[in-house]
Fold this sequence. Notes:
Strand order of the largest sheet: 1-2-4-3-5-11
Order of helices and strands: HHEEEHEHEEEHEEHEHHEEHHH
Keywords: Hydrolase
Shape: elongated
Radius of gyration: 23 Å
Helix content: 40-55%
Amino acid sequence: MFECTKKSQKDKIIYTVDSLAPRLKHLALTIHANPELSFEEFESAAALIAPLREAGFQIEERLGDLPTAFRAVYDSGKPGPTLGLLAEYDALVGLGHACGHNLIGTASIAAALALKTGFPEFSGRLEVIGTPAEEEGGGKIILAEKGIFDHHDAVMMFHPRDKTMVVRGGLACVDAVFKFYGKAAHAASAPQNGISALDAVIHTFVGINALRQLFTDDVRVHGIITDGGSATNIVPAYAEAKFLLRANTVKGLATVRAKVFAAAQGAADMSGARLEIEEGLTYAERNNNLTLADFFKQNLDILGVEVVPPPRSGGIGSSDIGNVSQITAAIHPYLRIGDVMPHTPEFAEAAASDAGLEAMLNAAKALAMTAVDLIESPEMLRAVRDEFLSWKAQN
Protein backbone atom coordinates (compact mmCIF):
# COMPACT_ATOMS: atom_id res chain seq x y z
CA MET A 1 0.00 0.00 0.00
CA PHE A 2 1.26 3.45 -0.89
CA GLU A 3 1.65 6.13 1.74
CA CYS A 4 1.21 9.82 1.18
CA THR A 5 4.50 11.61 0.62
CA LYS A 6 6.30 14.79 1.66
CA LYS A 7 4.58 15.77 4.89
CA SER A 8 6.61 18.99 5.17
CA GLN A 9 5.56 19.95 1.65
CA LYS A 10 1.95 19.25 2.52
CA ASP A 11 2.26 21.45 5.58
CA LYS A 12 3.15 24.27 3.20
CA ILE A 13 0.07 23.49 1.11
CA ILE A 14 -2.15 23.62 4.20
CA TYR A 15 -0.56 26.88 5.33
CA THR A 16 -1.00 28.43 1.89
CA VAL A 17 -4.70 27.56 1.67
CA ASP A 18 -5.27 28.86 5.20
CA SER A 19 -3.49 32.11 4.36
CA LEU A 20 -5.75 32.53 1.32
CA ALA A 21 -8.91 31.55 3.22
CA PRO A 22 -10.47 35.04 3.58
CA ARG A 23 -10.12 35.72 -0.14
CA LEU A 24 -11.33 32.24 -1.08
CA LYS A 25 -14.41 32.51 1.11
CA HIS A 26 -15.21 35.90 -0.39
CA LEU A 27 -14.89 34.41 -3.88
CA ALA A 28 -17.22 31.50 -3.09
CA LEU A 29 -19.80 33.77 -1.47
CA THR A 30 -19.67 36.25 -4.36
CA ILE A 31 -20.43 33.49 -6.88
CA HIS A 32 -23.14 32.15 -4.57
CA ALA A 33 -24.80 35.57 -4.35
CA ASN A 34 -24.80 35.98 -8.13
CA PRO A 35 -25.99 32.64 -9.54
CA GLU A 36 -25.76 32.21 -13.31
CA LEU A 37 -27.34 29.47 -15.38
CA SER A 38 -25.61 27.07 -17.76
CA PHE A 39 -23.57 28.75 -20.52
CA GLU A 40 -24.36 32.14 -18.98
CA GLU A 41 -21.72 32.07 -16.20
CA PHE A 42 -19.75 35.07 -17.44
CA GLU A 43 -19.28 36.82 -14.10
CA SER A 44 -18.57 33.57 -12.26
CA ALA A 45 -15.93 32.50 -14.78
CA ALA A 46 -14.31 35.93 -14.64
CA ALA A 47 -14.24 35.83 -10.84
CA LEU A 48 -12.51 32.44 -10.87
CA ILE A 49 -10.02 33.46 -13.54
CA ALA A 50 -8.94 36.67 -11.78
CA PRO A 51 -6.81 35.15 -8.96
CA LEU A 52 -5.26 32.65 -11.37
CA ARG A 53 -4.23 35.39 -13.78
CA GLU A 54 -2.86 37.41 -10.87
CA ALA A 55 -0.78 34.39 -9.78
CA GLY A 56 0.80 34.07 -13.22
CA PHE A 57 -1.26 31.30 -14.81
CA GLN A 58 -1.56 31.47 -18.58
CA ILE A 59 -5.25 32.00 -19.32
CA GLU A 60 -7.14 30.73 -22.33
CA GLU A 61 -10.73 31.91 -22.48
CA ARG A 62 -13.56 30.61 -24.67
CA LEU A 63 -12.02 27.15 -24.39
CA GLY A 64 -13.50 24.78 -26.96
CA ASP A 65 -15.48 27.71 -28.38
CA LEU A 66 -17.63 27.78 -25.24
CA PRO A 67 -17.99 31.43 -24.12
CA THR A 68 -17.74 30.66 -20.40
CA ALA A 69 -15.17 27.83 -20.47
CA PHE A 70 -11.52 28.49 -19.71
CA ARG A 71 -8.14 26.90 -19.16
CA ALA A 72 -5.51 28.27 -16.76
CA VAL A 73 -2.06 26.72 -17.12
CA TYR A 74 1.03 26.62 -14.95
CA ASP A 75 3.82 24.80 -16.78
CA SER A 76 6.92 24.34 -14.65
CA GLY A 77 9.05 23.52 -17.69
CA LYS A 78 10.29 20.42 -15.86
CA PRO A 79 9.33 16.83 -16.69
CA GLY A 80 6.32 15.61 -14.75
CA PRO A 81 2.66 14.72 -14.99
CA THR A 82 -0.09 16.83 -16.50
CA LEU A 83 -2.80 17.22 -13.88
CA GLY A 84 -6.22 18.80 -14.24
CA LEU A 85 -8.36 20.49 -11.61
CA LEU A 86 -11.95 20.89 -12.77
CA ALA A 87 -14.07 23.89 -11.83
CA GLU A 88 -17.86 24.07 -12.02
CA TYR A 89 -19.82 27.30 -11.51
CA ASP A 90 -23.29 27.09 -13.05
CA ALA A 91 -26.43 27.34 -10.92
CA LEU A 92 -29.89 25.79 -10.96
CA VAL A 93 -33.04 27.42 -12.29
CA GLY A 94 -35.02 28.86 -9.38
CA LEU A 95 -32.67 27.48 -6.73
CA GLY A 96 -29.36 29.23 -7.29
CA HIS A 97 -26.32 27.31 -6.04
CA ALA A 98 -28.31 24.39 -4.67
CA CYS A 99 -25.63 22.02 -5.95
CA GLY A 100 -22.74 23.94 -4.40
CA HIS A 101 -20.89 24.76 -7.60
CA ASN A 102 -19.69 27.97 -5.99
CA LEU A 103 -17.70 25.73 -3.63
CA ILE A 104 -16.54 23.35 -6.36
CA GLY A 105 -15.08 26.05 -8.58
CA THR A 106 -13.41 27.91 -5.73
CA ALA A 107 -11.86 24.73 -4.29
CA SER A 108 -10.13 23.93 -7.57
CA ILE A 109 -8.83 27.48 -7.90
CA ALA A 110 -7.61 27.32 -4.28
CA ALA A 111 -5.80 24.04 -4.89
CA ALA A 112 -4.11 25.46 -7.98
CA LEU A 113 -2.97 28.59 -6.16
CA ALA A 114 -1.63 26.50 -3.28
CA LEU A 115 0.37 24.31 -5.66
CA LYS A 116 1.90 27.22 -7.56
CA THR A 117 2.73 29.43 -4.58
CA GLY A 118 3.35 26.83 -1.88
CA PHE A 119 5.15 24.14 -3.87
CA PRO A 120 8.35 25.56 -5.44
CA GLU A 121 9.55 22.01 -6.27
CA PHE A 122 6.57 21.56 -8.60
CA SER A 123 7.42 19.66 -11.78
CA GLY A 124 5.04 19.01 -14.63
CA ARG A 125 2.02 20.89 -15.88
CA LEU A 126 -1.05 22.00 -13.95
CA GLU A 127 -4.28 22.97 -15.68
CA VAL A 128 -7.43 24.39 -14.17
CA ILE A 129 -10.26 23.66 -16.58
CA GLY A 130 -13.34 25.83 -16.17
CA THR A 131 -16.23 23.60 -17.21
CA PRO A 132 -19.57 25.37 -17.63
CA ALA A 133 -23.07 23.93 -17.84
CA GLU A 134 -22.81 20.79 -15.73
CA GLU A 135 -26.49 21.10 -14.85
CA GLU A 136 -27.89 21.76 -18.32
CA GLY A 137 -25.79 21.27 -21.42
CA GLY A 138 -22.87 19.00 -20.51
CA GLY A 139 -19.95 21.40 -20.76
CA LYS A 140 -17.41 18.68 -19.94
CA ILE A 141 -18.88 16.46 -22.66
CA ILE A 142 -18.37 19.18 -25.27
CA LEU A 143 -14.83 19.83 -24.05
CA ALA A 144 -14.08 16.10 -23.95
CA GLU A 145 -15.25 15.66 -27.53
CA LYS A 146 -12.83 18.43 -28.53
CA GLY A 147 -9.88 16.62 -26.94
CA ILE A 148 -9.36 18.97 -23.99
CA PHE A 149 -8.68 16.10 -21.55
CA ASP A 150 -6.75 13.77 -23.84
CA HIS A 151 -3.31 14.77 -22.52
CA HIS A 152 -4.11 14.68 -18.78
CA ASP A 153 -2.59 11.98 -16.59
CA ALA A 154 -5.32 12.57 -14.02
CA VAL A 155 -8.11 15.02 -13.27
CA MET A 156 -9.69 15.84 -9.92
CA MET A 157 -12.54 17.83 -8.43
CA PHE A 158 -14.76 17.68 -5.37
CA HIS A 159 -18.48 17.98 -4.73
CA PRO A 160 -20.31 19.07 -1.55
CA ARG A 161 -22.78 16.60 -0.10
CA ASP A 162 -24.39 15.40 3.14
CA LYS A 163 -21.62 12.81 3.64
CA THR A 164 -17.87 12.71 3.07
CA MET A 165 -17.20 9.92 0.56
CA VAL A 166 -14.20 9.51 -1.70
CA VAL A 167 -15.98 7.13 -4.09
CA ARG A 168 -19.52 7.33 -5.39
CA GLY A 169 -21.05 6.08 -8.61
CA GLY A 170 -22.77 8.13 -11.28
CA LEU A 171 -25.51 7.05 -13.64
CA ALA A 172 -25.44 7.48 -17.38
CA CYS A 173 -28.21 9.85 -18.47
CA VAL A 174 -29.70 11.72 -21.38
CA ASP A 175 -32.48 14.30 -21.59
CA ALA A 176 -35.08 14.54 -24.32
CA VAL A 177 -37.78 17.05 -25.20
CA PHE A 178 -40.88 15.57 -26.83
CA LYS A 179 -42.68 18.12 -29.01
CA PHE A 180 -46.16 17.18 -30.18
CA TYR A 181 -47.96 19.02 -32.98
CA GLY A 182 -51.74 18.62 -33.25
CA LYS A 183 -54.57 20.76 -34.58
CA ALA A 184 -56.46 23.47 -32.75
CA ALA A 185 -60.23 23.44 -32.52
CA HIS A 186 -62.99 24.84 -30.31
CA ALA A 187 -63.12 22.40 -27.43
CA ALA A 188 -66.90 22.81 -26.94
CA SER A 189 -68.46 23.43 -30.36
CA ALA A 190 -66.18 21.41 -32.66
CA PRO A 191 -63.75 19.18 -30.72
CA GLN A 192 -64.01 16.56 -33.48
CA ASN A 193 -62.05 18.87 -35.75
CA GLY A 194 -59.05 18.99 -33.41
CA ILE A 195 -56.02 16.85 -32.67
CA SER A 196 -54.96 17.21 -29.05
CA ALA A 197 -51.21 17.51 -28.65
CA LEU A 198 -51.80 17.50 -24.89
CA ASP A 199 -53.43 14.07 -25.11
CA ALA A 200 -50.24 12.85 -26.79
CA VAL A 201 -48.19 14.19 -23.86
CA ILE A 202 -50.51 12.55 -21.33
CA HIS A 203 -50.41 9.22 -23.16
CA THR A 204 -46.61 9.49 -23.19
CA PHE A 205 -46.57 9.68 -19.40
CA VAL A 206 -49.01 6.77 -19.18
CA GLY A 207 -46.91 4.70 -21.58
CA ILE A 208 -43.69 5.39 -19.69
CA ASN A 209 -45.34 4.52 -16.39
CA ALA A 210 -46.43 1.20 -17.89
CA LEU A 211 -42.80 0.51 -18.80
CA ARG A 212 -41.51 0.97 -15.25
CA GLN A 213 -42.31 -2.61 -14.24
CA LEU A 214 -40.01 -3.77 -17.06
CA PHE A 215 -37.05 -1.57 -16.17
CA THR A 216 -34.13 -2.80 -14.07
CA ASP A 217 -33.68 -1.29 -10.61
CA ASP A 218 -31.00 1.16 -11.72
CA VAL A 219 -33.26 2.90 -14.25
CA ARG A 220 -34.79 6.29 -13.51
CA VAL A 221 -37.14 8.14 -15.86
CA HIS A 222 -38.60 11.45 -14.74
CA GLY A 223 -40.37 14.15 -16.68
CA ILE A 224 -42.38 17.36 -16.61
CA ILE A 225 -44.94 18.99 -18.93
CA THR A 226 -43.37 22.21 -20.15
CA ASP A 227 -46.26 23.28 -22.38
CA GLY A 228 -49.81 21.97 -22.09
CA GLY A 229 -51.76 24.46 -24.14
CA SER A 230 -52.90 28.04 -23.73
CA ALA A 231 -56.63 27.88 -22.93
CA THR A 232 -59.05 25.28 -21.60
CA ASN A 233 -61.58 25.89 -24.39
CA ILE A 234 -59.08 25.25 -27.18
CA VAL A 235 -57.87 21.81 -28.21
CA PRO A 236 -54.08 22.24 -27.79
CA ALA A 237 -52.31 22.34 -31.13
CA TYR A 238 -48.94 22.14 -29.43
CA ALA A 239 -47.73 20.47 -26.23
CA GLU A 240 -44.32 19.59 -24.90
CA ALA A 241 -42.72 17.42 -22.24
CA LYS A 242 -39.15 17.07 -21.08
CA PHE A 243 -37.74 13.82 -19.70
CA LEU A 244 -34.47 12.72 -18.13
CA LEU A 245 -33.50 9.09 -18.60
CA ARG A 246 -30.90 7.34 -16.43
CA ALA A 247 -29.30 3.90 -16.20
CA ASN A 248 -26.13 2.34 -14.81
CA THR A 249 -24.30 2.42 -18.13
CA VAL A 250 -24.51 4.06 -21.53
CA LYS A 251 -25.25 0.63 -22.98
CA GLY A 252 -28.17 0.11 -20.61
CA LEU A 253 -29.35 3.64 -21.26
CA ALA A 254 -29.66 2.89 -24.97
CA THR A 255 -32.25 0.20 -24.21
CA VAL A 256 -34.23 2.55 -21.96
CA ARG A 257 -34.05 5.31 -24.56
CA ALA A 258 -35.43 3.06 -27.29
CA LYS A 259 -38.42 2.03 -25.17
CA VAL A 260 -39.23 5.55 -23.96
CA PHE A 261 -38.94 7.03 -27.44
CA ALA A 262 -41.21 4.27 -28.77
CA ALA A 263 -43.78 5.11 -26.06
CA ALA A 264 -43.74 8.75 -27.14
CA GLN A 265 -44.14 7.81 -30.80
CA GLY A 266 -46.98 5.44 -29.90
CA ALA A 267 -48.70 8.27 -28.01
CA ALA A 268 -48.37 10.49 -31.06
CA ASP A 269 -49.77 7.81 -33.36
CA MET A 270 -52.68 7.14 -31.00
CA SER A 271 -53.58 10.83 -30.81
CA GLY A 272 -52.94 11.68 -34.42
CA ALA A 273 -50.27 14.20 -33.47
CA ARG A 274 -46.84 14.62 -35.04
CA LEU A 275 -43.79 14.08 -32.81
CA GLU A 276 -40.42 15.79 -32.87
CA ILE A 277 -37.68 14.78 -30.41
CA GLU A 278 -34.83 17.02 -29.29
CA GLU A 279 -32.20 14.88 -27.61
CA GLY A 280 -29.46 16.24 -25.37
CA LEU A 281 -25.91 15.03 -24.86
CA THR A 282 -25.39 11.66 -23.20
CA TYR A 283 -23.74 11.81 -19.78
CA ALA A 284 -21.63 8.66 -19.34
CA GLU A 285 -21.42 6.59 -16.18
CA ARG A 286 -18.59 7.42 -13.77
CA ASN A 287 -15.36 5.45 -13.78
CA ASN A 288 -13.88 6.16 -10.36
CA ASN A 289 -10.13 5.64 -10.15
CA LEU A 290 -9.97 3.79 -6.83
CA THR A 291 -6.22 4.19 -6.46
CA LEU A 292 -6.41 7.95 -6.82
CA ALA A 293 -9.44 8.05 -4.51
CA ASP A 294 -7.46 6.22 -1.85
CA PHE A 295 -4.65 8.77 -2.07
CA PHE A 296 -7.22 11.53 -1.64
CA LYS A 297 -8.64 9.72 1.40
CA GLN A 298 -5.20 9.48 2.99
CA ASN A 299 -4.88 13.23 2.67
CA LEU A 300 -8.30 13.77 4.22
CA ASP A 301 -7.07 11.58 7.09
CA ILE A 302 -4.11 13.94 7.54
CA LEU A 303 -6.59 16.83 7.74
CA GLY A 304 -8.69 14.97 10.33
CA VAL A 305 -11.71 14.71 8.01
CA GLU A 306 -13.72 11.54 8.62
CA VAL A 307 -14.67 9.52 5.53
CA VAL A 308 -17.66 7.17 5.39
CA PRO A 309 -18.32 4.40 2.87
CA PRO A 310 -20.93 5.09 0.21
CA PRO A 311 -24.36 3.47 0.59
CA ARG A 312 -24.63 0.10 -1.09
CA SER A 313 -27.42 1.22 -3.38
CA GLY A 314 -29.47 4.27 -4.32
CA GLY A 315 -28.78 7.95 -3.94
CA ILE A 316 -26.89 8.26 -7.23
CA GLY A 317 -27.21 11.13 -9.66
CA SER A 318 -25.41 11.93 -12.90
CA SER A 319 -22.64 14.29 -13.94
CA ASP A 320 -20.59 15.01 -17.04
CA ILE A 321 -17.45 14.09 -15.06
CA GLY A 322 -18.44 10.58 -16.19
CA ASN A 323 -17.44 11.40 -19.76
CA VAL A 324 -14.07 12.72 -18.61
CA SER A 325 -13.51 9.58 -16.54
CA GLN A 326 -13.75 7.52 -19.74
CA ILE A 327 -10.75 9.45 -21.12
CA THR A 328 -8.35 9.65 -18.17
CA ALA A 329 -8.01 8.79 -14.49
CA ALA A 330 -10.54 10.82 -12.51
CA ILE A 331 -12.00 11.27 -9.05
CA HIS A 332 -15.10 13.12 -7.87
CA PRO A 333 -15.11 12.81 -4.06
CA TYR A 334 -17.70 14.39 -1.78
CA LEU A 335 -17.28 16.43 1.39
CA ARG A 336 -20.02 16.94 3.93
CA ILE A 337 -21.50 20.42 4.34
CA GLY A 338 -24.50 19.48 6.49
CA ASP A 339 -27.59 17.28 6.73
CA VAL A 340 -28.86 18.50 3.38
CA MET A 341 -29.39 17.01 -0.06
CA PRO A 342 -28.42 18.67 -3.35
CA HIS A 343 -30.98 20.49 -5.49
CA THR A 344 -32.93 21.82 -2.51
CA PRO A 345 -33.24 25.31 -1.00
CA GLU A 346 -31.59 23.96 2.16
CA PHE A 347 -28.53 22.88 0.18
CA ALA A 348 -28.27 26.31 -1.42
CA GLU A 349 -28.20 27.81 2.06
CA ALA A 350 -25.57 25.33 3.22
CA ALA A 351 -23.37 26.19 0.22
CA ALA A 352 -22.88 29.64 1.77
CA SER A 353 -22.58 28.45 5.38
CA ASP A 354 -19.51 28.24 7.58
CA ALA A 355 -19.63 24.45 7.27
CA GLY A 356 -19.77 24.70 3.49
CA LEU A 357 -16.82 27.08 3.33
CA GLU A 358 -14.79 24.92 5.71
CA ALA A 359 -15.47 21.83 3.56
CA MET A 360 -14.35 23.80 0.51
CA LEU A 361 -11.03 24.67 2.15
CA ASN A 362 -10.45 21.06 3.22
CA ALA A 363 -11.25 19.91 -0.30
CA ALA A 364 -8.75 22.39 -1.75
CA LYS A 365 -6.06 21.16 0.62
CA ALA A 366 -6.72 17.50 -0.13
CA LEU A 367 -6.78 18.13 -3.90
CA ALA A 368 -3.45 19.95 -3.76
CA MET A 369 -1.92 17.38 -1.41
CA THR A 370 -2.96 14.57 -3.73
CA ALA A 371 -1.35 16.43 -6.62
CA VAL A 372 1.86 16.56 -4.54
CA ASP A 373 1.69 12.77 -4.20
CA LEU A 374 1.43 12.28 -7.96
CA ILE A 375 4.21 14.75 -8.71
CA GLU A 376 6.64 13.55 -6.05
CA SER A 377 6.04 9.82 -6.37
CA PRO A 378 6.35 8.24 -9.83
CA GLU A 379 5.20 4.97 -8.28
CA MET A 380 1.92 6.51 -7.11
CA LEU A 381 1.32 8.12 -10.49
CA ARG A 382 2.09 4.83 -12.22
CA ALA A 383 -0.40 2.98 -10.00
CA VAL A 384 -3.11 5.48 -10.93
CA ARG A 385 -2.35 5.21 -14.63
CA ASP A 386 -2.08 1.42 -14.53
CA GLU A 387 -5.56 1.16 -13.02
CA PHE A 388 -7.03 3.43 -15.65
CA LEU A 389 -5.30 1.69 -18.55
CA SER A 390 -6.41 -1.71 -17.24
CA TRP A 391 -10.00 -0.48 -17.08
CA LYS A 392 -9.70 1.00 -20.57
CA ALA A 393 -8.45 -2.29 -21.98
CA GLN A 394 -11.50 -4.07 -20.60
CA ASN A 395 -13.97 -1.49 -21.87
